[in-house]
Hints:
71 residues
Amino acid sequence: PLTPRQQEFFNHLVSFHREHGFAPTIAEIQTYFALSSPASVHQKLLEQPVKIVIKEFLKDTKPDAVKSFDS
């Protein structure tokens, strides 16, 4: 299960993707959440529960993207 903050993070990614047809950039995520650095965004993306949920979302929307997410 995701923490409330992780859920908020994931919801933003999905919402942005639905609105624009592509994922937000690291800089856009950093600005949206007022994070101090790009490394903070990267850390959030790599948190295991978030990574699992994102992979499931990608599997349904862009199956080829799962491979690049794993690298």
